[in-house]
Amino acid sequence: MKHKILVSGGTGYIGSHTIIELLRSGLFEPIAVDSCIRSTPETLDRIEKVTGIRVKHYKIDICDKKSFFDIFKKEEDIAGVIHFAAFKCVPESVAQPLMYYRNNLGSLENVLDACGKFGVRNLIFSSSASVYGDVKDLPVTENTPLGVPFCPYAHTKQIGEQMIHFCAEQNPELQSVILRYFNPVGNDMSGLIGELSPDKPNNLMPIVTQVAIGKLPKLTVFGTDYDTRDGSCIRDYIHVCDIADAHVKALQFLLDGKNASNCETFNLGSGKGVSVIEMIDAFEKVNGIKLNCVFGERRPGDVPAIYSDSQRANQLLGWRCQHDINDMVESAWKWEKQLNGEQRN
Ligand code: UD1
Q1: What distance in Å separates the CA atoms of residue 204 and residue 161, rounded to the nearest whole number?
Q2: 10, 28, 214, 315: most buried, per Cβ within 10 A?
Q3: Closest CA to ligand 1's atom 34
Q4: What would the 3-class secondary structure string for the chain be?
Q5: Residue 184 CA: which ligand 1 atom is closest?
Q6: Which residues contact residue 337 at a Cβ distance below 8 angstroms, ignoring those fewer than 6 apart?
Q7: Which numbered atom of ligand 1 lies nearest the CA of 207?
Q8: Whose CA is nearest to atom 15 of ligand 1?
Q9: What is the position in ligand 1's atom list of the atom closest to the CA of 185?
Q10: Interval between CA 233 and ligand 1 midpoint (Å)
Q11: What is residue 232's predicted lDDT score, i.e. its pLDDT?
Q12: For a substitution probing ligand 1, which of 276, 281, 294 has the most ligand atoms within 8 Å of its CB?
């Protein structure tokens, strides 16, 4: 029998890609829970186009405890929760901190409460490399001490991790995995599903593709005087399908009882640092496009370089990145073109 998995934030960017990987594995029956305030239910049509399977969806806000608990009463045999649903925009979190604490921590409180009350034994939590703050010693391992949070968003991830640790101590039945993502980019290689960015995206890859398609006039490289090989910032970009695959492997790891403690943490990065200029070069070369690109000032709050040591996930989860930077830029562009075509029709 397939394991029923509740995926909060299931119509979001990483949530939808993870649902696809859960379906592709043939071992799981994912159920999406998403209020769709930052995503769209049309994502379910896209998942169906890619996999041929219609996923059940509850359109509710996870902060609404009664509606959320009703799902567990109705579905009964939920084997695990993958909790993605959260706000994730750094500048917005600085402007509206309480909205971030309320939403990101209120939803997690309900998830942990539901796991306890309804006997759900497996939990995967979306965390972020932003919990490390400004790290000097690279690469970053899971033992690297957490830094001072540079924004409320990062702080909610630090507090969220602590909440899970304390609940795991109190409830030994609950097995959890915390996954710290580095920079997820790209989309399913089919080009049929992908990230739906706001009109004014903040992250590099959506800005690159929107400049390429002509929605944005130009791309500014934020800082070219960093102490890095070409002066621009270095990040650890990881293909979203590799992130999704790691969730499937993390669930399997818990279901097989391979975890040594009941709360395990893993970095999810490719382990390679790539500069902003290298990323732009790769996009131009792979897709045969010249971007309108200018060199500008540093962006406040950016760390010069951060990349992951992902050996722990490699060894314990049996997980390896299958996609390189060329796949990331190719799939990002394929999706932007698909989306643009749909919006024009
Ligand atoms: C950001 C968040 C991080 C979050 C992650 C999600 C900050 C400080 N950090 O990471 O908490 O988990 O997104 O993916 O916001 N860049 C340009 N020009 C642009 C946009 C970006 O040069 O127009 C550069 C940035 O300076 C940075 C790199 O591209 O060096 C990546 O930026 P971005 O995609 O925003 O990710 P992070 O800042 O690394």
Answers
A1: 26
A2: 10
A3: 203
A4: CCEEEEEECCCCHHHHHHHHHHHHHCCEEEEEECCCCCCCCHHHHHHHHHHCCCCEEECCCCCCHHHHHHHHHHHCCEEEEEECCCCCCHHHHHHCHHHHHHHHHHHHHHHHHHHHHCCCCEEEEEEEHHHHCCCCCCCECCCCCCCCCCCHHHHHHHHHHHHHHHHHHHCCCCEEEEEEECEEECCCCCCCCCCCCCCCCCCHHHHHHHHHHCCCCCEEEECCCCCCCCCCCEECEEEHHHHHHHHHHHHHHHHCCCCCCCEEEEEECCCCCEEHHHHHHHHHHHHCCCCCEEEECCCCCCCCECCECCHHHHHHHCCCCCCCHHHHHHHHHHHHHHHHHHHHC
A5: 14
A6: 191, 213
A7: 23
A8: 90
A9: 14
A10: 9
A11: 98
A12: 276
Query: Ligand 1 site: residues with CB under 6 angstroms?
Result: 90, 128, 130, 154, 183-184, 202-204, 207, 219-222, 233, 235, 276, 299, 301-302
pLDDT at 13: 97
The segments of the chain whose pLDDT lies below 50 read none
Predicted confidence at residue 203, as pLDDT, reads: 95
Check residue 345 and give its pLDDT: 66
Residue 70: the pLDDT is 98
User: Is 132 considered catalytic here?
Assistant: no
Nearest protein Cα to ligand 1, atom 36: 203
In a 10 Å sphere around its CB, with 0-12 CB exposed, 13-18 middle and 19+ buried, how is residue 56 labelled? middle
Which of 299, 308, 325 to mutate for ligand 1's pocket (most ligand atoms within 8 Å of CB)?
299
Catalytic residue among 13, 153, 181, 307: 153
